[in-house]
Amino acid sequence: MEKLQVNIPHKAAYSYDILIGTDLLAEADEFVRQYSKANKFLIVTNETVAKLYRDLLNIDNAFWLVLKDGEEYKNFDNLKLILDAAVEHRLERKDCIIAFGGGVIGDMAGFAASSYMRGCDFIQISTTLLAQVDSSVGGKVAINHEHGKNLIGAFYQPKLVLADISTLKTLDLRQLKTGLAEVLKYAFIEKSCAAPLYYRLFDFLQQNKKDIFDMKPDTMAKLVEICCTLKACVVNQDETEKGLRAILNLGHTYAHAIENLTNYTVYTHGEAVAMGMKMAFNLSMTRGLIDKNYYNQAMELIESYDIAPKGAVFDKEKFYDEMFLDKKAQNGKVRFVLPDSPYNVLVTSDVEKQQVLESIKL
Fold first, then answer.
1. What is the pLDDT of residue 97?
2. Are residues 315 and 243 in the same domain?
3. pTM of the predicted protein model
4. pLDDT tens column, 31-63
5. What is the CATH number of the domain that holds 50?
6. How many distinct structural domains can be found in the chain?
7. Does the annotation mark 54 as catalytic?
8. Full domain range(s) for residue 346
9. Which of 66, 149, 286, 358 has the most CB atoms less than 10 A away?
């Protein structure tokens, strides 16, 4: 088992561990009680995860809430169900809400924990690659609004993140790929993260594609470790996205517009991110921020993982307008994260509309 730490400066009480390994669900009760002093636990999950793993997660004095599965259910109605369950089971402030599932469950359960009695303990037990490499780490919790993704939320750090690599074996290919989109993102921003070690994730992804799609445990554990290390490094420097943390949004300004325009029912988050990254590289190329060689290498890597759907066509004017509803927009301008050299990005709002419109192509 590998143990990493998110250690936010000047907030020692908010530091927490990320535990990465295989067959960790069987030991979850021990881990949970090590990191939380709660007497009661509310386990929030979805129908898919409950069917697969409910019998493996045995935590004493825990109550279960099983929600419907899908991004379209990340809303007020399901947030209320979580809070209603917490009240029904009389959870106290020292008790704990456990998010058992992927990014949707983690975001909703975390937001509920941040608001229930002004904050109770929160633990992430992530079961998807997307959650393990990205969404479970960093304390961003939220629900969607009809006018935008994650518009209503908070920064609220968990007490523990538990990533059991064994749960990845039940992901279908599409869900595996949606997590890999976030992994690719880290390859394109690695130098910007200012991590103490350089992992050459771009090269790792080129050289280990077969093992990744075969989901070999050692390879997947290494991927999760690298991505969590890079994200923790960023979060440690900028917890609430005042500056550096914005680099984690490469491709996401486009992706959130895609998801909202299609009502979260056409593409997975990872598919939208993969399309968004291609558009961001298009914009960087148009602006002369990167050369043709790196552009081609990046596009070839994205294409080789076959994540971005082919043939998608969008109304560019509607797409552009949708971007202004993104929560990262500032002073009436859209912020873009753009590659500016190999494995490095910059954040800018100084982008002409016509350049953006030209970049919306696949």
1. 98
2. yes
3. 0.94
4. 999 999 999 999 999 999 999 999 999 999 999
5. 3.40.50.1970
6. 2
7. no
8. 177-359
9. 149
